[in-house]
Design brief:
single chain; alpha/beta; 3 domains; 6-stranded antiparallel β-sheet; 28 strands; elongated
């Protein structure tokens, strides 16, 4: 029994030591595994940290690189804008002066030269250290009908005579100016010490003659109806003093006043002119008077008046220049012309009637007054040609190729195909001082046009089927530069200002003249098929008549004598862009 017990005790002792050894071995194994795990995790964290640091450093380098790329891209785009501006400024140069031809302008107007036209500019923005190189190339050029000749009476260098229209019957024709449509490719490269970027853009550019219809006329009725101008006030001012004579006289008077130590005041200029006029009229020398007339006629500041049908103009009750002329001119065989109360119509400037040319059957209606006969007179209505000096009654019949206003048919036929912007339906153009309407070439639509406010640029608003609505005064931002044509060959011009005067600085060509409104003042010209001065009956309806007061002042800038109305139109849309 004791032996069995002893054997069992030894067995338990051996088992205990064995289990203890295994427990120690297991603990050591766990410690090793934990250490390995810690080392593994630490390695992964270290590797990830290094990767993150590398990414941060790389991102920083990339962001600097992207910043440089974006900066160079903006500078390259600035180069494109700079080239477009210089191109437009080059196109705005005069073609010639008295002794000089501007070759840069001629290169754009002459079709053959324009077809191979290139231009390069280099520019370094101040303080930037960045060099911008820009090149322009005219591509895929094609001719358009919007070209022109130099005016045959224009005094120009002999080398430019090839651009004047021939008046003989020879089969050969001289070269025209302007009238082309092309793509303009501009490549701009901006380069710094670190980065270089190139931007390419493709635009559409048109070099078109933007002269509105009948630029030689203040007033042109190309219909063949009988039109009457009776009640109300209808006055034409055909003498563009500011645009022509004033440019010569005002500086001359200022210079004279400086040399004579006189105090020249703009407000007193009319008095000075009256003094000059008094001096001229007091001189008996016909040579001096003829010389003055010749100088004035050579300046050609006058707009003409035309009617293809018949125009009856009822004179006002008292017209000051006619009464004065009666008493001043002792050799006159005509009696003063006394018109009608409430009629204030005049198709000429006071004292300037003989300088205006009238074409067609234009008659004035009046009564004769015999001031030296005080006995009771019988009133007899009379009529005669508007002026005995310059009314050409048969001119429309003898010049049938001039029956329609100049440029009118060309614009109507080709406006849609060669316009700068082609729109559809009703269109609204409203401008302010801060955001004027931008007129760039021919803007075409087939619906009504609503326009008013400030505008800048040169061009035309054209509607093929609709009317033109003037919502408020239409004023150019720069009166000596900006010019606008309003053309509605099938419509009319409608004024929305009913209680006050509407001022319109534009050339107007419409079918049925001007409707509604209280008064209108136009600086430009008025071309219409039907005048409708006192309304137009259409069945049981009667359209509104013209305003009672109409004043039209001729703007000589409408004339395209030296290709001065050939202006560039660059598309806002980019046809191709790459950087």
């Amino acid at each position: 029994m004791r032996q069995k017990k002893s054997a069992s005790s030894n067995s338990m002792r051996i088992s205990f030591f064995y289990n203890k050894k295994n427990m120690l071995r297991s603990a050591n194994s766990k410690r090793a595994s934990t250490l390995v795990m810690i080392i593994f995790i630490s390695s992964i964290i270290f590797i990830l940290s290094m990767m993150m640091m590398s990414i941060v450093v790389q991102d920083k380098k990339t962001s600097v690189k992207v910043k440089d790329v974006i900066q160079m891209k903006y500078y390259a785009e600035f180069g494109i804008a700079l080239m477009k501006r210089q191109f437009i400024e080059q196109a705005k140069l005069p073609l010639f002066t008295a002794d000089k031809i501007f070759k840069d302008k001629l290169a754009l107007l002459d079709f053959e030269n324009a077809a191979s036209f290139t231009k390069t500019i280099k520019y370094t923005p101040p303080g930037s250290g960045i060099k911008i190189n820009v090149t322009l190339e005219i591509m895929n050029i094609r001719a358009t009908p919007f070209n022109c000749y130099l005016h045959h009476k224009e005094k120009s260098p002999i080398r430019l005579n090839i651009f004047k229209k021939k008046n003989d019957d020879s089969s050969s024709e001289n070269k025209t100016l302007g009238g082309w449509d092309a793509f303009m490719k501009i490549v701009s490269t901006a380069k710094s010490n670190k980065e270089e970027q190139t931007v390419e853009s493709l635009f559409n550019v048109k070099m078109n003659n933007l002269t509105p219809p009948a630029p030689e006329y203040t007033f042109f009725i190309h219909g063949q109806k009988v039109e009457d101008i009776k009640e109300g006030q209808f006055i034409l001012s055909n003498w563009d003093f500011q645009g022509t004579v004033g440019k010569v006289v005002v500086p001359l008077m200022k210079k004279m006043s400086e040399e004579l130590s006189l105090n020249f005041d703009e407000m007193e200029f009319n008095d000075l002119l009256q003094n000059v006029k008094g001096f001229v009229q007091s001189v008996d020398s016909y040579a001096i008077l003829n010389k003055i007339n010749q100088i004035i006629m050579n300046l050609s500041p006058w707009g003409k008046v035309r009617c293809n049908g018949r125009l009856n103009v009822y004179l006002p009750f008292f017209e000051v220049d006619d009464i004065i002329n009666y008493f001043v001119d002792e050799e006159s065989l005509e009696f003063p012309e006394i018109g009608y109360i409430g009629f204030g119509n005049r198709l000429h400037d006071r004292f300037m009637g003989k300088y205006t040319r009238y074409e067609g059957k234009i008659y004035k209606y009046y009564y004769e007054l015999k001031p030296y006969i005080f006995s009771k007179q019988r009133k007899t209505a009379r009529h005669a040609l508007y002026t005995m000096f310059s009314t050409m009654k048969n001119y429309p019949l003898t010049h049938k190729n001039e029956v329609m206003p100049e440029y009118f048919e060309n614009i109507v036929t080709n406006a849609k195909k060669y316009c700068t912007r082609k729109l559809s339906g009703e269109q609204k153009f409203f401008g302010t001082d801060a955001h004027p309407i931008f007129i760039n070439g021919i803007i075409y639509t087939d619906g009504d046009i609503y326009v008013g406010g400030n505008y800048r640029g040169r061009g035309m608003l054209f509607t093929s089927k609709g009317d033109i609505h003037i919502t408020e005064d239409l004023i150019p931002v720069e009166s000596t530069i900006d010019m606008l044509g309003l053309i509605a060959p099938e419509g009319k011009l409608i004024l929305h200002k009913l209680a006050s005067k509407t001022k319109i600085n534009a050339a107007i060509s419409v079918k049925n003249s001007i409707l509604k409104g209280k008064a209108v003042e136009i600086r430009g010209n008025l071309i219409s098929e039907n005048l409708n001065r006192h309304g137009l009956d259409e069945g049981i309806f009667k359209l509104s008549a013209m305003p009672k007061k109409v004043m039209i002042t001729y703007d000589s800038r409408l004339r395209n004598r030296a290709a001065n109305n050939v202006y560039p139109s660059i598309s806002v849309q980019t046809f191709y862009y790459r950087f």
